[in-house]
Design goal:
Elements (H helix, E strand, L loop, with lengths): L7 H33 L14 H13 L7 H27 L12 E2 L3 E2 H32 L2 H27 L1
Antiparallel strand pairs: 1-2
Length: about 180
Amino acid sequence: MNELIVSKTTKDKIIEYITYFFIYSFLGWILETIYAILINGYFVKRGFLYGPICPIYGFGAVILIMATKNLYGKPFKKFLIATIAFTVFEYIVSYLLEVLFGLRWWDYTNDFLNINGRVSLLYSIFWGIIGLFLLEKLHPFIQNLIQKATTKCKFNIQYIVAIVLIIAVIIDTVFSAIRYLN
């Protein structure tokens, strides 16, 4: 039987991106929660899942990190890519969630220059700024922390933690989907 042989550096990169996904999903949940508290004046459960993560932020961050990895010293290009990528991604996710569950988790219908209430100019610019901040300030800091932590932690432990987190999110996704389908 032929096995797919993956180099250790590829395995390390996969675990690294999985780690980024979970970190940015959690930070996105915190951002959403703070935003909701500021708007509503009280805690509002944010996101699709039961747990304290918003996967749209994790996927968005990983996509952005991968798409801009060769753009050192080009903040305006990073801003443009973040603005476009997050806007397109937000539109697609909004559409899919509505098709699958018949619900909208956000609605920009009353915002200036919106497209079907799924995205708007204001939030697109906001996502561009957040994306630029992520790429220029937050990610280098997180990347440094992850590199320091992974040098002290055996790969097998990193792998097990990643698998446990993935399984937890899959279970959360199944139970959350059931909740919204009923």
